[in-house]
Design goal:
This protein is of the alpha/beta class and 340 residues long. The chain folds into two domains: 11-158 and 248-286, D-Maltodextrin-Binding Protein, domain 2 (3-Layer(aba) Sandwich), CATH 3.40.190; 162-246 and 289-336, 3-Layer(aba) Sandwich (D-Maltodextrin-Binding Protein, domain 2), CATH 3.40.190.170. The chain is 45% helix and 18% strand. It contains 15 helices and eleven strands. It has helices at residues 11-26, 52-67, 85-94, 106-109, 125-132, 135-148, 187-196, 208-214, 224-229, 255-259, 263-286, 290-297, 309-319, 321-328, 330-336, and strands at 39-45, 72-78, 99-100, 150-160, 162-165, 180-183, 199-202, 219-222, 238-241, 246-254, 303-306. It has a five-stranded mixed β-sheet with strand order 2-1-3-10-4, with helices on both faces. The chain has a four-stranded mixed β-sheet with strand order 8-5-9-11. Helix 2 (52-67) packs antiparallel against helix 11 and helix 14 (321-328) packs across helix 15. The longest helix has 24 residues, at 263-286. The termini are far apart.
């Protein structure tokens, strides 16, 4: 079956379409395609346009297809292809699809990335970008390639996370007492919420809206750029700007599929991945301030408040940092002291 962008895909369609590639990859050989037929590169993502990363990767897919002059056919599927972040990454690892992103679940898929999400450790965007596009990112690339057989195309982020809640704003750490806050399933997210004083509820994104409507959770956290795109205003009254977790993630390709590309095709994909990275970073950073957040969210019925960030930072340093510092040692010192 040919994957096209004209019809939505379900899991059964995906598995049938990916069976041929999966069989080739199982042999340990790079995939061989007819020279006259374009190589199909399916990119799956948990969210659809207008989510910030979806916009950039949809653009990237079209650009790869166009600029490869018919040699590559990159197709982006947001939300309709596979319903959960971990299923997407398992499909990329197995070769059922070529490319994907763990989105907000990066630290679950790649525990090596968990350190960067320790609350208030990454100081600002400038430091984050320089780390991930520099030597620290290069080292992480090699670890991911060696351990998971995935080629990192780029790192991007959803920005710093802020609380969204239905009952009251979160201005001081004490406002989290008794609050059931949804978190991504990586341990560092649960440690953050519990350490700051709330009750962490690990949950995949696909369950969040229903859980918020039914009262299973009192809120969660998201970067400003995605509060609007993911329509969190439908279940939330308050956005509290706490900047508590920086949210790095990445886009990856199955390593066998990557090795099956020509050097020119690899360069094209890497160049366009970096261009997509810039688009996402601009979308993220441009709205991550109080004035812009108010203009984005308050017309939709939310109230945006500034939290006491220094108080949250103090609590994090006292209750959350020590265990991670002991665990990561030299790398912790490198990140804590990193300056852009």
């Amino acid at each position: 079956m040919t994957l096209t962008s004209k019809a939505p895909l379900n899991r059964r369609t995906l598995l049938r379409a990916g069976a041929g590639m999966a069989g080739i990859l199982a042999t340990g050989r790079a995939p061989a395609f007819a020279q006259t037929a374009p190589k199909k590169l399916v990119f799956a993502h948990i969210n659809a346009v207008p989510e910030s990363a979806a916009v950039a990767f949809d653009w990237m897919a079209k650009a790869v297809t166009e600029r490869s002059k018919g040699a590559l056919d990159m197709q982006f599927f947001g939300k309709t292809l596979i319903p959960q972040e971990l299923e997407i990454m398992n499909a990329v690892k197995s070769g059922s699809i070529a490319m994907g992103s763990p989105a907000g679940a990066a630290a679950t898929v790649f525990p090596e990335m968990g350190l960067f999400l320790v609350p208030y450790l990454v100081k600002d965007y400038a430091a984050a970008y320089k780390m991930f596009n520099g030597a620290i990112g290069d080292k992480l690339n090699k670890e991911i390639e060696d351990k998971y057989k995935l080629k990192v195309l780029c790192y991007y982020d959803y920005g710093f996370r802020h609380f969204w809640t239905s009952k009251k704003p979160i201005v001081e750490p004490r406002d989290l007492r008794g609050a059931k806050i949804r978190v991504q399933q990586a341990k560092v997210f649960g440690d953050t919420i519990n350490g700051l004083g709330g009750n962490a509820v690990p949950m995949a994104w696909g369950e969040v809206i229903t859980a918020a409507k039914s009262g299973v959770i009192d809120g969660g956290d998201l970067p400003i750029v995605n509060m609007k795109a993911l329509k969190i205003y439908e279940v939330s009254k308050y956005a509290s700007m706490t900047y508590h977790n920086y949210g790095p993630t990445n886009a990856v390709m199955n390593l066998d599929v990557w090795n099956g590309l020509t050097p020119e095709q690899q360069k094209l994909i890497m160049d366009l991945s970096r261009a997509a990275q810039e688009k996402i970073r601009e979308a993220t950073e441009s709205v991550d301030n109080f004035t812009k957040a108010k203009s984005e969210l308050e017309p939709l019925g939310m109230t945006v408040v500034e939290a006491n960030v220094e108080e949250f930072r103090k609590v994090a340093q006292q209750k959350i940092w020590p265990a991670y510092k002991a665990q990561y040692g030299a790398l912790w010192d490198q990140i804590e002291g990193f300056k852009a």
